[in-house]
Automatic annotation (TrEMBL):
It is found in: Cytoplasm. Keywords: 4Fe-4S, Cobalamin, Cobalt, Cytoplasm, Iron, Iron-sulfur, Metal-binding, Oxidoreductase, Queuosine biosynthesis, tRNA processing. The gene is queG. The active site is at residue 134. This is Epoxyqueuosine reductase. TRNA binds at residues 220, 222, 280-281, 295, 297-298. It comes from Virgibacillus subterraneus. Its EC number is 1.17.99.6. It is an enzyme of class 1 (oxidoreductase). Pathway: tRNA modification; tRNA-queuosine biosynthesis. Belongs to the QueG family. The lineage of its organism: Bacteria, Bacillati, Bacillota, Bacilli, Bacillales. Monomer.
Length: 381
């Protein structure tokens, strides 16, 4: 079998179906990654969202016993919103990180990978393939690095020479022994912009991330956000991409190759106040198709409350008081109380004091006390 010819046919076909870059890697064990993951695990640096054991994540054979090669694909996404709506004093807006703009990339990439798989099977009926996007066991980034899609930056993103790091990655494991492509050389050099810009020190050192301090991860948790990170998320309600924004490789890239990945301005930068009262049905209709909805509405509403506090949005006080008093979810009531304290109007403090009389949840009461403590800050400034 002439795999070189098939490889070229696959490369040509990938362009036809809108894949921006494709690379071929061996399906050998990811030995270095295995060691790194074990280290991350022992340090408690993982997010908890990882799928599968370390062995499954680093040994393609465990996922497809006949695996010989892995095809890595990259799809470029936009870095700027055309006609971006402005946040005004009366109507503050939050923002989803770039990787959550447009239709959920899992859907978009999976569709392309399925097409690619069907194409390969048509050309080579004995092919056995398995496709994966992000939620699979394999590390998209390790595969992409090995397949020469990009180099692994100090911010842990894969940086392509063509599209910077604003690319979605997916892969297809196959039993066809393709000649692998060569990995790219490291391109960070002495640059440390991402490490310097990370507000929480989550980038422990070049290429090593403590996910427990990474704001992108913390915006997706469902419990109370630890205090030290609340002032740092700003108006991000999902994800956080400052370590990519500052990267020199991303300064002039803004690709709009895929209509389905185009950000809808009012979804990518939603008004914050309406998010507080959004029904499940409205949430599904408005945000259900984007990647940032995967954890449901609670984390986004919690983050919206923190963002309103960050803005000191006095126009939101009335609605936030209603949330603090009536929402059935303690995380939401407590965060509303904390953010009301941040805003610091008399009305806000009075409402917290009043709500404390009826509140029975210990954690919410704790947040209410923290909210009231801001009063001292206001009286000393
Ligand atoms: Fe590498 Fe600099 Fe980009 Fe960080 S900001 S990933 S150090 S090039």
């Amino acid at each position: 079998m002439n795999t070189d010819h098939l490889k070229q046919e696959i490369i040509d076909y990938s362009k036809d179906i809108g894949i921006d870059k494709i690379g071929f890697a061996s399906a050998d064990v990811f030995g270095e990654l295995k060691e790194r993951l074990r280290r991350q695990q022992s340090l408690g640096y993982q997010s908890g969202f990882e799928k599968g054991s370390v062995d499954e994540r680093t040994e393609p054979e465990r996922l497809l016993p006949e695996s010989k090669s892995i095809l890595s694909i990259a799809i470029a996404y936009p870095s700027r919103i055309k006609d971006s709506p402005k946040s005004t004093k009366d109507e503050r807006r939050g923002i989803f990180c770039r990787a959550s703009w447009g239709v959920d990339y899992h859907v978009v990439l999976r569709e392309k990978l399925e097409k690619l798989s069907a194409f390969i099977e048509e050309k080579f009926p004995d092919a056995v393939n398995k496709v994966m996007v992000d939620t699979g066991e394999l590390s998209d980034r390790a595969v992409a690095e090995r397949a020469g899609i990009g180099f692994s930056g100090k911010n842990t993103s894969i940086i392509t020479p063509e599209f910077g790091s604003y690319v979605y990655l997916g892969e297809l494991i196959t039993n066809i022994p393709f000649v692998p492509d060569k990995p790219l050389a490291d391109g960070c050099g002495s640059c440390t912009k991402c490490l310097d810009a990370c507000p929480t020190g989550a980038l422990v050192q070049g290429g090593q991330l403590n996910a427990q301090r990474c704001l992108a991860f913390l915006t997706q948790t469902k419990d109370f956000m630890p205090d030290e990170f609340r002032s740092q998320i700003g108006n991000f309600i999902y994800g956080f991409d400052t370590c990519q924004v500052v990267c020199p490789y991303n300064q002039k890239v803004d690709f709009h190759n895929h209509p389905e990945l185009e950000p809808e301005p009012d979804v990518a930068k939603p008004k914050l106040k309406p998010m507080l009262r959004i029904s499940n049905r409205e949430f599904k209709e408005t945000f259900g198709h984007i990647a940032g909805s995967w954890r449901g509405k609670k984390p986004l509403q919690r983050n919206a409350l923190i963002a309103l506090g960050h803005y000191k949005d006095v126009t939101a006080v009335e609605e936030m008081i209603a949330v603090m008093k009536n929402d059935v979810r303690p995380v939401i009531r407590g965060t509303a109380a904390w953010s009301l304290g941040k805003i610091g109007t008399n009305e806000a403090f009075e409402a917290i004091t009043e709500a404390m009389e009826k509140e029975t949840d210990e954690q919410v009461l704790f947040e209410m006390k923290k909210g009231l403590n801001f009063q001292q800050e206001f009286s000393t400034t």
